[in-house]
What we know:
By secondary structure, this protein is an alpha/beta fold. It has 2 domains: about 1-35, no CATH class; about 40-175 and about 195-210 and about 255-265, Rossmann fold. The chain contains 8 helices and 12 strands. Helix 3 links the parallel strand 6 (about 85-90) and strand 7 (about 105-110).
Amino acid sequence: MILKESNFICPVCKSKMFNLENSLRCLLGHSFDKAKEGYVNLLLKNASGKRHGDDKLMVEARKSFLDKGYYSKLREKIGAILGSGNLVLDSGCGEGYYTSYFAENNTLLGIDISKDAVKAAAKRNKKATFAVASIAQIPLSDASVDAVVNIFAPDSQKEFLRILKRGGRLITAQPMENHLFELKQAIYENPYKNPPLNPQKDGFKINSVNEVKYKINLETAEDIEALFKMTPYYYKTSAADQQKLKTLNSLTVSLEFVITEYIKE
């Protein structure tokens, strides 16, 4: 029987892994079971027992909000920059909203440290291949992918350089200064703007920079709450300030993103 090689490598010994019916197994015998949704957990056990990544509440809120198309302009712009025919890693893929779109024209790998997020992503899309994994130790071989997409996720510059082919691309999306400012105004007495970004990255040259700015009208309290819960603000806000949003039935919010396309030198 000829075994199909996986794009992922073993997180223990860094050797090649192969697809068995219900697991991935490396050359040295380390084996990782596939969940019924099709993803595999390659995150090595955490001795501290600390929860990894976004919890179920945050994942469900993001899915509810994004599935209504509020961020579709961002997704479409990144997709246009990415193009087609690439082997792509979506680093910090979340519940797969962007990954599934890019998978229509590319071969997609998605990783996230949150098991809840990866489970949702695998349910959403069967074309992409998903794993629970840390972007600080990406389970991919050196110079193995054409592009990395990193959307509102932590940076892992050293790892991105390692796994990208020479001339490969890193595409990032980050919030600009006024992103979600009206949401902050509705919650905080002294709302703050996002700090300015430093786009420079060692080992990469900037190939293009695109700004995507528009406003959305949220017409239900449910959508306002979902937007809030999918942001880090929710977990850093007092119960009293959280309560302020429950009195709102509509809100116009500014969306401001900067998409930076880098090329590995």
